[in-house]
Design a protein that fits this description.
Layout (H helix, E strand, L loop, with lengths): L3 E7 L2 E6 L4 E6 L2 E4 L2 E4 L1 H4 L9 E2 L2 H4 L15 H16 L5 E6 L5 H13 L4 E6 H6 L7 E7 L4 E8 L2 E10 L4 H20 L7 H18 L4 E8 L2 E8 H7 L1 H14 L6 E5 L1 H4 L4 H6 L4 E5 L4 H8 L1 H4 L12 E3 L5 H4 L5 E2 L22 E4 L2 E4 L5 E4 L7 E4 L12 E6 L2 E6 L5 E3 L2 E2 L3 E4 L4 E4 L4 E6 L4
Parallel strand pairs: 1-7, 7-8, 9-14, 14-15, 17-26, 20-21
Antiparallel strand pairs: 1-2, 2-3, 4-5, 4-6, 9-10, 10-11, 11-16, 12-13, 18-19, 18-28, 20-22, 22-23, 23-26, 24-25, 24-27, 27-28
Helix pairs in contact: 3-4, 6-7
Length: about 475
């Protein structure tokens, strides 16, 4: 097992990264308590709609020693459930782990952090550092002096403001306490259920098992809506299979109030005219329509962070976070800045990066994962993607590598867009008058693209497919 390990701990759950790249979790922040039996993480979430009265999802948010009250056992506290959650994870990864660092969201106070450290000590977890999760995520290296990180937790949303000079320094944490992932998912699940009722007369919420199934499938559906305009959603119930088609535009409308409120919070912290890098957590990026709303802000570069960003950053800085062998620094909200490489700094304003795939246990990347493409395919023609830009349009410039479009070219510019490889990624840059679209979403400036992405130019337009080959 890993010698060093970092945990990102939020009310949405716990995710760990080991020094060999090993992933631990994610383990959702849910607990199911019946008599003296406590289930935590995925096991509790899988039964949350079956036994709702006995499920607790606020224990990481509260982190206090106040009894939960009925229907839970007498004297049971949120701290007890945090203990149970960490114990279930530690028993699987503790052997051989010598040092642990914790990335924690900025809304926790000193009392909650002290209680968390007490719990880890009671479990024998060798915590050597405690760092703000937004600052940890920012250590991956991003251009500019001003960073804002938008995140969505289980019961609240946050925007963290950071300044970059010689150090990355957390300045403010703005919170939205009216909603979080749980409320967003509940609202979307109910809208989808209404769509089933309207079309098929089948109500998924009439039965606890189908309600649970709907919630289990919702995260996967939301992920697919990022690249598909319409999905056929299916559920079984009453001895029959039921199906309803839902468009992405509908889902974005259902989530609009959440996306708008979080975008407004970002806008309030963003200084007009000052270039800003907007970091978006993997949880926040799952709110339909939010990324597009943020990408439309002037003077901003939107960067989508992978799920393990905070844990990976905390692990990367664990030597700094450990003041002395066996010592523990106070909660860290300032870390030395790592300058991005020239390739990272050259993406330009408006570049949108999406998270890389997480490998499965056997090291493979699942089909449809975010693999760097090697070629762009137009019909039966494949052109290699290299550091030298490939210009796509009706009349690419003389002397440039070009992919000339013929046939249906309404709305296609002479030099419509271009692809080029930089820093191990492939970037698509829009050069057109009428826009370039990736998986149905308009590119604002630049976007990092991946194998399987579909690029549309013109109206109704032509479609280019990005592929990856071994040679």
């Amino acid at each position: 097992m890993a010698r060093a390990l970092a945990f990102d701990v939020t009310d949405a759950g716990v995710l760990g990264v080991g020094d060999g790249g090993t992933l631990v979790g994610p383990s959702p922040g849910y607990a199911l308590v019946e008599e003296n039996d406590v289930l935590v993480g995925p096991e509790a979430l899988a039964r949350a709609r079956l036994r709702p009265r006995f499920v607790m999802s606020r224990f990481w948010e509260r982190l206090d020693a106040v009894p939960l009250g009925r229907p839970f056992p007498e004297g049971l506290t949120a701290a007890d459930l945090v203990y149970a959650h960490l114990r279930s994870l530690w028993k699987d990864v503790g052997a051989g782990t010598e040092e642990v660092v914790l990335a924690v969201p900025g809304f926790h106070g000193s009392e909650a952090l002290g209680r968390l450290l007490g719990i880890t000590q009671a479990l024998g977890i060798p915590v050597v550092g405690l760092v703000d999760s937004a600052v940890a995520a920012a250590t991956a290296g991003f251009p500019g002096e001003r960073l804002l990180l938008a995140d969505v937790h289980l019961h609240r949303a946050t925007v963290t403001e950071m300044r970059q000079g010689e150090d990355i320094v957390r300045e403010r944490v703005a919170t939205i306490e009216r909603w979080g992932l749980e409320e967003v998912h509940d609202a979307l699940a109910r809208r989808i259920a209404q769509a089933f009722v309207h079309k098929t007369r089948f109500d998924p919420f009439h039965d606890a098992e189908t309600e649970q199934t709907l919630h289990d499938r919702l995260p996967g559906w939301l992920e697919r809506f990022e690249s598909e305009d319409r999905l056929a959603l299916s559920l079984s119930g009453g001895g029959h299979d039921h199906e309803v088609e839902v468009e992405r535009a509908e889902v974005e409308e259902w989530a609009r109030k959440y996306a708008e409120e979080l975008a407004q919070k970002v806008s309030l912290l963003k200084h007009p005219g000052e270039p800003t890098t907007l970091l978006v957590s993997a949880h926040a990026a799952r709110i339909p329509g939010l990324v597009g709303r943020l990408a439309a802000m002037r003077g901003s570069e939107v960067v989508l962070l992978p799920g393990p960003a905070a844990a990976a950053g905390a692990l990367r800085e664990h030597e700094t976070l450990r003041a002395v062998k066996g010592g523990l620094r106070l909660f860290v909200t300032r870390l030395e800045r790592r300058e991005p490489s020239p390739e990272e700094g050259s993406r330009g304003a408006g570049a949108v990066r999406r998270p890389p795939p997480v490998a499965s246990a056997d090291g493979s990347v699942p089909f449809g994962g975010a693999v760097r493409p090697t070629h762009v395919l137009l019909g039966h023609r494949a052109r290699a993607l290299t550091a030298e830009p490939l210009v796509v349009g009706t009349a690419p410039p003389d002397g440039a590598r070009g992919l000339r479009l013929a046939g249906e070219t309404a709305g296609v510019s002479r030099a419509h867009c271009r692809f080029f490889e930089v820093g191990g990624e492939v970037v698509l840059e829009d050069l057109s008058t009428y826009g370039t679209f990736v998986n149905g979403e308009q590119v604002v400036g630049r976007a990092v693209v991946f194998s399987g992405d579909r690029v549309r130019v013109g109206s109704p337009g032509q479609e280019l497919v990005l592929i990856a080959t071994e040679e």
